[in-house]
Amino acid sequence: MGITLRKADGADAAVIHEMQVRTFLPLLEKYQDAETSPANEPVERVLQRIEQPQSDYYIIQNAGVPVGGIRVRQKEVQQYWISPVFILPEYQGLGIAQAVFGIIEELYPEARVWGLATILQEERNCYLYEKLGYTRTGEPHPINDKLTIVGYEKLL
Questions:
Q1: CATH number of 150's domain
Q2: What's the total number of domains in the chain?
Q3: Can you give the pLDDT at residue 107?
């Protein structure tokens, strides 16, 4: 498995958007979170994220094939936030996300605090982040009666 990250530019917005919709659509159908789901975002929102200062968006590649995306945003000195991060459904469960987080930590050696948020009800996501050394922070944030967002943080 040759996992690599390629920094995205504006020309990649449509590809990232298509992968994002494919990845998050099953979660939108499951949780009915139309207001907050990345599956409902327009391609222009992806482009804004790519072009945002203090933000790096990467296409996740497996043997050169685009399989997902990850955006890293600097919040403060030595503090970074990951959002979104996603792997296409057909590539989930293969260890790609673990590899990506390792690559990201190498790309940002100055980082001392990493943060992200995920769906509490998605136990596989929570398990992955905890396995990678993240701990739950703050109060859970209910979106609706089916979906709650929780924060995670990793201190280096």
A1: 3.40.630.30
A2: 1
A3: 98
What CA–CA distance (Å, rounded) separates 10 from 66? 16
- What tens digit of pLDDT does each residue of 86-118 get? 999 999 999 999 999 999 999 999 999 999 999
**CA dihedral sign, ordered 41, 44, 45, 47:** positive
**Three-class DSSP category at 2:** coil
SS3 content of the chain, % helix, strand, coil (to 5): 35, 35, 25
Structural domain range at position 133: 3-155
Q: Which residues pair with 82 in a beta bridge?
A: 72, 116
Q: Is residue 86 classed exposed, middle or buried when 0-12, 13-18 and 19+ CB atoms within 10 A define those classes?
A: buried
